[in-house]
Amino acid sequence: MARKPGSSPSAIKSRAARTAAALAPAGGAPAAAATPKKKGTNPVQFFREVRAEARKITWTTRKETWITSVMVFMMVVLAALFFSAVDGLLGLGAKALLSFAAG
């Protein structure tokens, strides 16, 4: 069986090195040497970051919420009808099988 091109160990290593170089931080420092964050952050800084993250939240409009709710309701109804039909068919099959077995 022939090997695929680029499946030699040296080709795999060179691809891994290129990938690692592309994912490395811009300063050229390895990812492990990045400075870790302090465990005890300043509460004021914490609340600033919370406010900054809260500003990024996008809320749906009333119309989008209504349309999504209607779509969910329709899917629930369709699923209920489907499972009801499958349950009915399986029930009929079980009754037929039991009446056939009873003689």
Automatic annotation (TrEMBL):
UniProt membrane topology term: Single-pass membrane protein
| Biased composition range(s): Low complexity | 17-35
Q: Which InterPro entries match?
A: SecE_bac (IPR005807), SecE_sf (IPR038379), Translocase_SecE/Sec61-g (IPR001901)
Keywords of this protein's UniProt record, alphabetized?
A: Cell membrane, Membrane, Protein transport, Translocation, Transmembrane, Transmembrane helix, Transport
- GO molecular function list: protein transmembrane transporter activity
- Name one cellular component (GO) term: plasma membrane
What is stated as this protein's family in its record? Belongs to the SecE/SEC61-gamma family.
Q: What does this protein do?
A: Essential subunit of the Sec protein translocation channel SecYEG. Clamps together the 2 halves of SecY. May contact the channel plug during translocation.
PANTHER family referenced in this protein's UniProt entry, alphabetically: PROTEIN TRANSLOCASE SUBUNIT SECE
Q: What is this protein called?
A: Protein translocase subunit SecE
The species is: Caulobacter henricii
